[in-house]
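We close this part of the discussion by returning to an individual protein. The amino acid sequence and the backbone structure tokens for this protein are reproduced below:
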Amino acid sequence: MTTEHSSTMRPQPRIVLRAIAVIGIALSLFQLWAAGVQPLGLFFQRPIHLGFILVLCFLIYPVFGYDRARGLLGWAIDGPLIAASILVGAWLPVNIDVIANQIFPRDIDVMVGVLTILVVLEGARRAVGLGMTIIGAAFLAYAFAGNRGELPFLADWMPGILNHRGYSLDRVASQMTLGAEGIFGIPLGVAATFVFIFVLFGAFLEATGAGKFFIDLAYAATGRQRGGPAKAAVIASAGMGSISGSAIANVVTTGAFTIPLMKKLGYRPAQAGGIEAAASTGGQIMPPLMGAGAFLMSEFTRMPYVDIVLVSIFPAVLYFGVVYLLVHIAAVKQGMTGLTAADLPRTRKVLAEGWHFLLPLVALVVLLVVGYSPMRVGFYAILSIIAAASARALWTYATTGPTAIGLVDLCRRGIALTLEALELGARNAVSVSMACAVAGVVVGVVGLTGLGLKFSAMMIAFSGGNLLLALILVVIASLILGMGLPVTAAYIVLIILVGPALTEEFGVPLLIAHLLVFWYSQDSNVTPPVALAGFAGAAIAGSKPMETSVQAWKYAKGLYLIPLFMVFNPEIILGGPLPLVLWSGAIAVLGLVAFAAVLEAFLWRPMQVWMRVLLLPGVVALFWPDLTVEIAGAILIVALLAINWVQARGDRNSSGDVAPQSDAQHS
């Protein structure tokens, strides 16, 4: 996972890099031990994990930023923070018996609690961004605002519905650090168990070369088609994104290969960057891993992880299908051709060299289906990638003239790659764990003050009880939160605030409410003015960030429409009579194809204005929760698309040769 700061990064002293490596490897080994050998209780696992993460955070991210040396003053600040991080990680495990048996917290517990909150907020500022820290601090200020709180004057600034009694420093510090409802709550618990182990799995895949294998395989499969590199970007991002768990990391890894090739083929730079950003964003909604989302959803909904993965497959395929179709239409409109066979890797050769990378993924899926816990599945998946890579290396060694020196070199390389992967996994987990720790602050304050119920009441008041207006409010809230929060944190905050209203007041099923919020939480990656994946794509493409973000937003339209379809046609997620499920799936595909045609003014040939105008109400009808209206909309859309196809065929027959546009029918 490439850091966003790499372009301005000042090299750190060797001793610091060694310390980061040693602590990162120790953290990964601790997590593996807890996942596969000796599971730990939450008041041991979570604080120790947080302590490790905080130490790594303050070592990796200097106080004054990457572009300045840390210096004596920097170490005077960071040294005590590192010491405080060790104290934070050790305090609960060492004192658990005393803390568990006391009625009121000791003064020393409150002091350590305050220190924990401050250290977590500062760590989040460095690893995630200032927005995360501001939101955490704002929620803490809200807890103190009230007649009995530490900041009673703030109560005058809040509308009546948001007022509450206010809480003391002792109460807030206890809530945040001495129980499972604050910093050490569900978000950090998920980060310290499932998420870390799968981030580590992704690091092992990355270190052993799986990333290049998936990219080459995508190119071999799609490279000869029109707009081949763009289609390869869509497929490679589906594979890589579900492993890396980060849209931005996905853009900078797969995009380094796909964006230059897209530009070479004829896509505009902003278009190439936007396509990669849209495809990479889909990686986080693609099973089996879905970033951290599926694990968090499993904890919040109390549904088995494998069930969430299974119901998420069809929506994810729909999303990538829409991006793929939009990419194809753009290629046909611009008269592009595919790459020549000489420029592409051969499928047989790619599979021959990297087929062993498929084994860990197969093992992962099989173990999930059999019913192993996600953490144990991740542990065995890591062992399987080590075994597969080792077996492959030994086979290569045995078939290319084995020597004693060669065996020593092979062992050294194997150990080096393993240590590299262990360190990389720990580094990659820092930002997610810090975001989850601050999300725990938000969850703790919401639980303490009853803010969730108040927010639900406000939501009902603003929407007037209209579900569509309520969903639009969720989109706006997700976009605003996404400006300062990473996807995982935005999802946690949003589901805590709007989840109760969606399920209890508007009747949205619990799992669909979570999927809706999780999908909408992705929009900060592709929606201007803050489109983080779009900005990463622009940096590689050499295009303007805002123009690239607009393109990413256009190609990622499925991100907004598919969750709406889940709400109004819940059977595609929750199941039902087979004919109804098949009908809902078919109209979902039809509606998304029609919407793509409206958006691009093109399908098999350019689409006239009157057809686009008529298609829009047809698409709306497919989302209408009434079977008669859905059937009418489907008939209208099929008729209009059929006319477009017949016109394209007529163009082809009358011209006597294949115009670039009419080739779309070969898609």
